[in-house]
Sequence to fold (156 residues):
Amino acid sequence: MSLGPVLGLPAAENDFQNSFVQKVLASHARVTGRTLLPGLTAREIWSGDFALLTHRGGPEAMLNYGNRFALDLWECGWDQFIATPSSATAPDEGRAARAQTMQQVIETGFVTGYEGCRISRTGRLFLIQDVTIWRLLEESGESFGVAAFFRRYQRL
Fold:
């Protein structure tokens, strides 16, 4: 497994990380057989009314992409977000369930309909609902991390 890239803040200067975002979307189609966010540009995805986030894979599984919706929900800036291990997005008591779901993603390629408690950088709890989580796979089949997408959440 290769680790996904460390990315800079999506902005006009880097085309809102378009090549990475397109790779994530292509992987979703490859793994799930479904198209996610058809016709949206990377700029529209960056400012969308949904969360799209990824982590790099590997033992630390550091976050490496989150759109503005995800950053706002986790109450942090870009540099804080990409310095966060994916496991730290769940409160301590929710990490075992999260780990079990991640194992299922590794084994089956993706899960849909996931629901789980998460914690923001400032300690606010929220429930993410109807989440799709999938392995990020190159065309060659090599993994470059994991992605998640959801629209619904509830503050706790």
